[in-house]
Amino acid sequence: MVSLRRVVMVLFLAxxxxxxMKPHRLSLTHSLVLHYGLYKKMMVFKPYxxxxxxxxxxxxxxxxxxxxxxxxxxxxxxxxxLNTFNVGDDCPxxxxxxxxxxxxTGASLQGATQLNHKIxxxxxxxxxxxxxxxxxxxxxxxxxxxxxxxxxxxxxxHPRVLYIDIDIHHGDGVQEAFYLTDRVMTVSFHKYGxxxxxxxxxxxxxxAESGRYYCLNVPLRDGIDDQSYRQLFQPVIKQVxxxxxxxxxxxxxxxxxxxxxxxxCFNLSIRGHGECVEFVKSFKIPLLVLGGxxxxxxxxxxxxxxxxSLLLEESISDELPYSGELYRFQNSFWLIHGCxxxxxxxxxxxxxxxxxxxxxxxxxxxxxxxxxxxxxxVPSDMLNYERNDEPDPDERGAEENYTRSASHxxxxxxxxxxxxxxxxxxxxxxxxMVTMTMTKRVMLKFEPKGVxxxxxxxxxxxxxxxxxxxxxxxxx
Length: 476
Prior knowledge:
This protein is α/β, with parallel strands linked by helices. It is 30% helix and 12% strand. Substrate binds at residues 90, 140, 295.
């Protein structure tokens, strides 16, 4: 039995109320985690807020500057920019938009930094996973792509990062960002066809240039259930890990692939969705777990609470614990069995599954070897652990309100300060990658930048110290 150290999880208490993905699902998840007592198995950290500089690691300065300035009160003066940056319909302007983006992005970024310094082996941010955002524009309820920014941070220390996406929608923003590099392999399981958003993710989209065959898409039909999903997911991921040999994994756990999701069309149960998380965890590779889609709020909270327990290796009751939020589950007071299957609209045949599996495996055979890079020193981390700025008084008030509602949840703000830069070997910035957006290629540059500790959301870090340690020692 491996010893438990810590786990990182990000939850918003009062931010982004106008966002279409209903951030209240995070508060509901937080309530279940507390009342199941799972917080006792985790170290809890207050997250950093990502700065404009941090977001510009991937996004254009004009776009981030626009997000920082626009508000419901002045948006009439930004008509041209709203069209240019695709903000309006499925990505509306709401009060606190930039603050919302800063919090979930900073939390994912902190989780990546914790993994880099080996403070934890598993970092969770259920508020992250917004995989549609592009370099120059918002898309599909996503404004800032916290996944890409976190992966860029991980690549400072890890020669190969594997990205796995089990959201019902294709992870197009992440795929596009790393389409030309072999340093990141993207694998997405999603609904494809019949003009389903975002319309990308054909199995023949395999990457380009040095990234050719390092992009893997598994398009699925309506109504796929646990058994059919498992028959594809487990052999494909095992093969990918064997071929690519990642030193870190990022897992996007969009819960809109559950049955009865308002925008979904799959038949996955909470247990089936959790099996994917548990299977990825079984490789004992450093893991960043993120949220994503999910539009039936009570089922999203059930799913992510159950998966938190799986990552902690803690058994919890199927009967929901009593709390002030219990009424929101609408008289279905069960954790795993509270999510019922949707009506299956298509028959998933063994022939269909085998056809997809064979095509995917043929693409994997084109990977000759796991790419390697030389190890050199790199600039300091995006997050500066040494920063000791005093928090804003208003932020402290928010923290006090939180403490009163969960006084038994202990916060540790100084645990990361003991980490030294020499504790890990680092990778060369010159071999990072080139991002591709709208046929443009831009070399990413990094500069040290500190980010404050203010915020009313909290990162709880789930960490495991595995007996099997992943080495960053690679040869050129």
